[in-house]
Amino acid sequence: MKATLAMIACLAMAGFLTAATVEGNNTAVVIQKDKVQASTGWQFLCVPVDGLAISGAKASGVDISTFLPPDSCNPNTEVYVLNAEGTKPSTHTFQLTNNRWTAGSGTSNMVESNTVLKPGAILWVLDGNNVQVQPAAEGGESAPATPITFCGQSRTRTAPERPNVAKKMTAMKNDSATPITLSSVITGKPQTGDQILRVQKNVNDYQRYWYEANHWWIDGAEGSTKADSETIQPGESFYYYSKKAI
């Protein structure tokens, strides 16, 4: 089968761009995601691609320098890798020192070896500068944040079951190569009172959606509006709050 190659130089907008075709057993993709960093400097990300292997190998790892190129991060940026279930932080960390990622102490079943992350790994990333807001550009407007670019082999997400535990906060992710809607975050039916929480740009509070009357809702300036069609981007992680067990 043919694999479509996407070239970073051709990127203009988020999504996939094709440049040429080659014979192979997989599909290479380049994805751009807006940088969404809280006012405290944190991002909540996941690895939405597999390592590229023309041989057709599946679920190969991605080096952290490919996932987060050192030149695109501030010195002393730190990365915290969650465990396979995404329910609690692991002890495995990385730090950007002298323009190189170095692994800290501890182990994680989402790190293949040294600096190689497993596809789907969930990460908390702390900006080394811990900038409160983007610096003002000329004219007093905020300077645009550099998008995050993911390069690798196309990956398909498997939606998890709804957590059947009362008052439980579970880390989830869009580790696929395409956006997903709130309605497709889990398999099974959400329950009244369930919530989805996402990191907001330059804000220290989560963006909250809640489930009621068979719809996801979001607070708006003029009241609550349906949010079923809101999308979560490739490479974005979030929390799912299950209000009750069923």
Number of discrete helical segments: 1
Structural category: mainly beta
How many strand segments?
20
Beta-strand content: 35-45%
Major β-sheet annotation: 6 strands, antiparallel
List keywords for this structure.
1 helix; single chain; mainly beta; 6-stranded antiparallel sheet; 246 residues
Give a topology summary.
Layout (H helix, E strand, L loop, with lengths): L1 E4 L14 E4 L4 E6 L8 E5 L15 E2 H4 L10 E5 L6 E9 L2 E4 L7 E3 L2 E2 L4 E5 L21 E6 L14 E6 L6 E2 L13 E4 L8 E6 L2 E6 L2 E4 L4 E2 L4 E6 L4
Antiparallel strand pairs: 1-2, 3-12, 4-11, 5-10, 6-7, 6-11, 7-8, 9-10, 13-20, 14-19, 15-16, 15-20, 16-17, 17-18
Task: Explain what this protein looks like in three dimensions.
The protein is mainly β and 246 residues long. Helices cover 2% and strands 37% of the residues. The chain has one helix and 20 strands. The chain has one helix at 64-67; strands at 2-5, 20-23, 28-33, 42-46, 62-63, 78-82, 89-97, 100-103, 111-113, 116-117, 122-126, 148-153, 168-173, 180-181, 195-198, 207-212, 215-220, 223-226, 231-232, 237-242. It has a six-stranded antiparallel beta sheet, with no helix packed on it. A hairpin with a 2-residue loop joins strand 16 and strand 17. The radius of gyration is 19 Å and the shape is globular.
